[in-house]
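Tokens as discussed.
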């Protein structure tokens, strides 16, 4: 996946990110899996695989951000007067 998507950073959030020793283990396993294959310089950086800054709140906060964006986009669309079925309301 790292070579397919070429991410600049991998961020892991939620409760799993709080497991003791997780990130050093992930970094070591990733280095072993990449086996020295040439990639982007950031793949070898200590901050390539990191915990989300919001910890357990990363998922809920992301959901709230997406909902706020969807609501803002809906407010910007002109209302057509069509009901849920696509027809006009009587």
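Sequence:
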């Amino acid at each position: 996946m790292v070579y397919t998507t070429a991410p600049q950073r991998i961020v892991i959030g939620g409760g799993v990110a709080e497991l003791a020793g997780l990130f050093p283990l992930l970094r070591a396993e990733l280095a072993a899996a990449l086996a020295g294959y040439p990639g982007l310089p950031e793949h070898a950086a200590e901050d390539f695989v990191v915990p989300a800054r919001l910890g357990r709140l990363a998922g809920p906060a992301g959901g709230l951000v997406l909902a706020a964006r969807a609501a803002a986009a809906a407010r910007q669309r002109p209302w057509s007067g069509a009901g849920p079925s696509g027809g006009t309301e009587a």
